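Lab notebook, design round three. We kept the backbone fixed and only want residue identities now. Task for the bench partner: fill in a sequence for the structure below.
Input structure tokens:
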């Protein structure tokens, strides 16, 4: 047997009533108003329910209706069911705004962008319980328990809601000591006087030197690492010059742990993107985290412009 769950709302008007013999305009009428239907529709639903149950729930009298003993017992069951449904709905809606939020990203982005500023999000949104998963493989939203991700690529991922985090370019970074004093870096060619640090291969440095108009008549040397975060940390420690992308170098630049000695930069075709399933893009806690990421990126861009302008005026 199936029972239309909306029939429970027919009993709802008596939930807090002190009268055992409610008049028609205090019962079916109120139920009709709550359900946005006519009083006649309510009466028909009650009759249909009584036929399906084979039990009389109300006695029809000239001046109104009277709930039967069976109806009162059934009311207790329906009332309990509605209370459970309301509680479950409240928990579900609360879960959309708070609770666990699992974020997937690369180890480099987690280390150099997300973790340094994570406390700001936690302070602002204490009801959201962040779980950060830093892995190299891209997350499969259909198979993994992940809500949102920050991916590096071209942004062409079908079936996903994709938002660009920020614009980026590739430029030289170094310890601030190398841009001060008599031996400081003045011209792009000066880069060849220092150890060059490489990510994955030496191709990027060859491209940057060529774009800066620096002729190189010898093979480039210097250690090659496979993690951008390792490369940036080595530059912070003064081990040499490195090429870094805007997003990963921004925190250290803004906190003066790194300096950018030259304006010359290379464009990048692959950027960082905020990604989640299209079906969950507007879930409040997911959109809250996405908006926070974007706000942080915009603030970084503004502060980097101001910092670059100040440094340029001092040279």
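Proposed sequence:
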């Amino acid at each position: 047997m199936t029972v239309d769950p909306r029939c429970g709302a027919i009993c709802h008007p008596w939930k807090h009533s002190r009268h055992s013999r409610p008049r028609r305009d205090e019962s079916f009428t109120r139920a009709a108003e709550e359900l946005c239907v006519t009083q006649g529709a309510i009466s028909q639903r009650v009759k249909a329910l009584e036929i399906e149950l084979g039990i009389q729930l109300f006695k029809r009298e000239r001046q109104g209706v009277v709930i039967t003993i069976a109806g009162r017992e059934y009311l207790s069951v329906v009332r309990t069911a509605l209370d459970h449904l309301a509680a479950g709905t409240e928990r579900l809606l609360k879960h959309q705004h708070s609770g666990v939020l699992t974020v997937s990203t690369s180890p480099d982005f987690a280390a150099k962008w997300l973790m340094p500023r994570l406390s700001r999000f936690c302070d602002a949104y204490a009801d959201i319980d962040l779980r950060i998963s830093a892995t190299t493989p891209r997350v499969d939203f259909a198979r993994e328990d992940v809500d949102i991700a920050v991916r590096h690529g071209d942004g062409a991922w079908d079936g996903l809601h994709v938002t660009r985090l920020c614009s980026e370019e590739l430029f030289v970074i170094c310890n601030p000591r190398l841009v001060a004093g008599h031996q400081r870096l003045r011209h792009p060619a000066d880069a060849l006087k220092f150890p060059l640090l490489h990510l994955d291969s030496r191709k990027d440095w060859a491209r940057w030197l060529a774009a800066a108009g620096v002729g190189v008549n010898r093979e480039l040397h210097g250690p090659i690492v496979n993690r951008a975060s390792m490369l940036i940390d080595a530059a912070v420690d003064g081990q040499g010059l490195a090429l870094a992308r805007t997003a990963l170098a921004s925190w250290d630049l803004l906190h003066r742990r790194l300096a950018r000695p030259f304006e010359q930069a290379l464009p990048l075709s692959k950027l960082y993107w905020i990604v989640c399933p299209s079906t969950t893009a507007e879930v409040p806690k997911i959109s809250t985290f996405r908006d926070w990421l974007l706000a942080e990126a915009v603030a970084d861009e503004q502060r980097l412009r101001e910092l670059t302008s100040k440094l340029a005026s001092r040279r």
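Keep this in mind before ordering anything: The chain has a mean pLDDT of 85.
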